[in-house]
């Protein structure tokens, strides 16, 4: 009998790719999303797929769409633009929404994987960040609606594991990019790619010396699948350990796009982390996982998506076509 997987946030960037991965392996998938940040455009290729069903629903209200063997909880605003705009909703989905998803897993004795984040480490005083580091998070700053929602979710997931024996997993996701990443979501890769393709200045905040680690989406999804099939209940970092400064990332985008855009500098946002790099020792040892796609290759794989996402404005003559 075909196993059923339920994915919350299925119309989002990572949720939609995870949906594709399970369908490719022969599972049936129930996708749940309230579309506050997700888009049905990410799922349009599945309209005629009989093993996929979509349910428009806010998981902050209890839900049950039938027996499932796996629950993947990916519902949450995740970009700075979105969680700044939807701060209370972000806190709600990280608390009530996560609890409702856990209740479903408890009811059906389903395996549960929660999409957590490297933001649990805040502006880290330890580098690189390993899973046993407790973090340096401002609980009342502008980023706290996202950071603390995810930290509370982790505590809730572990509580359901300890007290109710739910078979849980925690994936701490570092910066991930690729096709279906929202073009206007305020994250580094999407900002730079859109600005470069539109002939605009690339906006670097601060000096550009702050670092990030960028994982291509297919590598990230492979990590989710491996973690879901492991027996590890404590958090596992899933990210590319290659560390890039923001300025070097901007130059990589200019090379890949062939854009003649300039780089401009603006003040650093409040609580913006100075360093971000995963220690992936646990993922390598427990899952046999490590990313295969380097940044410039991933940017090239993403180029056509970003180009098509801004095509209307290019056609309207509001942007300069990059040189190649």
Please tell me about this protein's structure.
There is one protein chain. The chain is of the alpha/beta class and 324 residues long. It has a domain at 4-177 and 215-238: NAD(P)-binding Rossmann-like Domain (Rossmann fold, 3-Layer(aba) Sandwich). Helix content is 38%, strand content 16%. The protein has helices at residues 13-24, 80-85, 87-108, 144-164, 188-197, 217-228, 246-257, 281-287, 295-309, 311-315, and strands at 4-8, 28-33, 52-56, 70-73, 111-117, 168-173, 176-177, 202-205, 211-212, 215-216, 236-238, 244-245, 263-266.
The number of distinct helices, counting runs of at least 4 residues, comes to 10
SSE pattern, N- to C-terminal:
EHEEEHHEHEEHEEEHEEHEHHH
CATH architecture of the domain at 4-177 and 215-238: 3-Layer(aba) Sandwich
Strand content: 15-25%
Q: What's the count of strands?
A: 13
The mean pLDDT is 94
What helical percentage do the residues reach? Answer: 25-40%
Report the principal-axis shape. globular
The main sheet comes to:
7 strands, parallel
CATH class term of the domain at 4-177 and 215-238: Alpha Beta
What is the SS-derived class? Answer: alpha/beta
First-residue to last-residue Cα separation: 51 Å
CATH superfamily of the domain at 4-177 and 215-238: NAD(P)-binding Rossmann-like Domain
Strand order in space, largest sheet: 3-2-1-4-5-6-11
The CATH topology of the domain at 4-177 and 215-238 is what? Rossmann fold
Rg, Cα atoms, Å: 19 Å
| Low-confidence runs | 315-324
């Amino acid at each position: 009998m075909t196993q059923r997987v339920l994915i919350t946030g299925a119309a989002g960037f990572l949720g939609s790719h995870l949906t594709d991965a399970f369908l490719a392996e022969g599972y049936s998938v129930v996708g749940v999303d309230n579309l506050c940040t997700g888009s049905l455009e990410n799922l349009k290729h599945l309209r005629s797929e009989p093993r996929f069903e979509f349910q428009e629903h806010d998981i902050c209200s209890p839900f049950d769409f039938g027996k499932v063997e796996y629950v993947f909880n990916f519902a949450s605003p995740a970009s700075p633009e979105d969680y700044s705009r939807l701060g209370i909703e972000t806190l709600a989905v990280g608390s009530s929404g996560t609890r409702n998803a856990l209740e479903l897993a408890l009811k059906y004795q389903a395996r549960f994987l929660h999409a957590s984040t490297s933001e649990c480490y805040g502006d880290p005083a330890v580098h690189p960040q390993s899973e046993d580091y407790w973090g340096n998070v401002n609980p009342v700053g502008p980023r706290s609606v996202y950071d603390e929602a995810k930290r509370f979710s982790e505590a809730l997931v572990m509580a359901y594991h300890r007290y109710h024996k739910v078979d849980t997993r925690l994936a701490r996701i570092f910066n991930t990019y690729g096709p279906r990443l929202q073009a206007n979501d305020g994250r580094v890769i999407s900002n730079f790619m859109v600005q470069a393709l539109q002939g605009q200045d690339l906006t670097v905040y601060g000096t550009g010396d702050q670092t990030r680690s960028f994982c291509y989406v297919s590598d990230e999804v492979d990590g989710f699948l491996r973690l879901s099939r492991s027996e590890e209940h404590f958090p596992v970092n899933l990210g590319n350990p290659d560390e890039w400064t923001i300025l070097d990332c901007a130059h990589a985008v200019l090379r890949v796009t062939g854009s003649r855009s300039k780089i401009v500098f603006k003040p650093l946002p409040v609580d913006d982390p100075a360093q971000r790099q995963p220690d992936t020792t646990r993922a390598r040892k427990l899952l046999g996982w490590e990313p295969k796609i380097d940044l410039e290759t991933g940017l090239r794989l993403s180029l056509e998506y970003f180009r098509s996402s801004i095509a209307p404005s290019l056609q309207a003559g509001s942007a300069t076509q990059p040189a190649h």
